Amino acid sequence: MRTVHVQTAEPYDVYIGADLLSECGQIINKAAGGSKAMIVSDSNVAPLYLEKVVKSMEAAGYECVSKVINAGEEHKNFATLVDIVETAAAERLSRKDIMVALGGGVVGDITGFAAAVYMRGIGYVQLPTTVLAAVDSSVGGKTAVDLPMGKNLAGAFYQPKAVICDYDCFDTLPDRDRNSGYAEVIKYAMIRGTEIFDMLDGPVENLIAKCITIKAVIVSEDEHESGVRQLLNFGHTIGHALEQNSGYTMLHGEAVARGMVYACELAEAKGKLAEGTKKTLIDALLRYNLDVDGAFDAEAIEGYMRNDKKAGGDKVNFVMPERIGACTVERMDIGEIVGVINELHNC
Q1: DSSP string covering 268-333, please?
Q2: Can you give the pTM of this predicted structure?
Q3: Of 13, 23, 255, 256, whose CB count within 10 A is highest?
Q4: What pLDDT score does 346 carry?
Q5: Which member of 73, 184, 243, 254 is catalytic?
Q6: Looking at the structure, do residues 21 and 90 belong to the same domain, yes or no?
Q7: What is the edge-to-edge ordering of all strands in the sheet holding 63-69?
Q8: Based on the domain organization, do 155 and 211 belong to the same domain?
């Protein structure tokens, strides 16, 4: 088992290893305490892992209750959030008790937000079951739900008590979901970790630990995304707009993959991208069958970008790549971003 420490205002550890769900109860007890736990999962993950988690937590002395929500980004909304919070109240969870997020990014985001608002904040633990959640969304304390106008527009920064990543869970992922998660792995290579490209064929434990270590350092420097943490949004400004415009038929990682390529094209058009950078990125994405091109609805994408939480007026904080392992954040005109990309894909 590997451990990565996250030094935020309320520090915690990320545990990475095989079959950790079987011993998660002891780890959670030590990290979060409490006597009662509400385990939130979704309709895809619960049949696979909920029983194992309950068994481990009961063995560690917890009284467990379960809440299974519908799977899918379209259910990451206020209706589901209220359902979770009302269930916690009906089950009489106290401020000393905890919530446990068992699932991918949607479950982690919404459970964290529920924990942040229930009784003005109770402890919670992340048990990510996807590559994407393991390397990215479970760490750093970003919690949220989506609004019709945009992704993650309502939420809170609220750190977990622990993150327990059992990479055996990846074995049950459909290929498309696993590949989608690797878009976030490649993102880390682009912003900070050039050696990640050389680790893709190595042990998954080392790859996850490397990505989480990069994120832990960034989050420790900038917990509330006022500076360097914005680099973690590479590919996401356009990606979120693509994802939402697809009605969430496009997976998050698939949208981010195209968003990263478009960001490289924009940087290339402005003469800021080192030679070979875009090719290295595209080659890595194609390795995981991630589409790097497709229809670009300029009008719709521009509308969604204007509702991005990083936007203000006609401008948005945009992560601009310069070379592998180095990006900067620029305040850019949204119309210019969309116009350049649209021109490139309509010529």
Answers
A1: HHTT-S-TTHHHHHHHHHHHTT--------HHHHHHHHHTSTTEETTEEEEEEEEETTEEEEEEEE
A2: 0.94
A3: 256
A4: 72
A5: 184
A6: yes
A7: 2-6, 12-17, 162-166, 123-128, 98-103, 36-42, 63-69
A8: no
Assess whether 203 and 112 both reside in one domain. Answer: no
Asked about 278 being catalytic, the answer comes back as no
**Of residues 67, 75, 187, 229, which has the active-site annotation?**
229
Provide the domain count of the chain: 2
Across residues 201-219, what is the average pLDDT? 95
184 labelled catalytic: yes
Per-residue pLDDT tens over the stretch 47-73: 999 999 999 999 999 999 999 999 999
Is 225 an annotated catalytic residue? yes
In terms of residue numbers, what domain contains 80?
2-172
Question: Is 323 a known active-site residue?
Answer: no
The answer to whether residues 297 and 226 belong to one domain is yes
The yes-or-no answer on residue 120 being catalytic is: yes
Q: Above 90 in pLDDT, residue 347?
A: no
The per-residue pLDDT for range 3-16, each reduced to its tens digit, is: 999 999 999 999 99
Residue 67 dihedral angles phi and psi, to the nearest 5°: -135, 115
pLDDT (tens digit per residue) in 321-336: 999 999 999 999 999 9
- Selecting among 225, 245, 306, 310, the annotated active-site residue is 225
- Annotated catalytic, 279? no
Catalytic, 252? Answer: yes
Q: Which member of 151, 161, 210, 236 is catalytic?
A: 236
Catalytic residue among 240, 258, 278, 310: 240
Same domain, 87 and 197: no
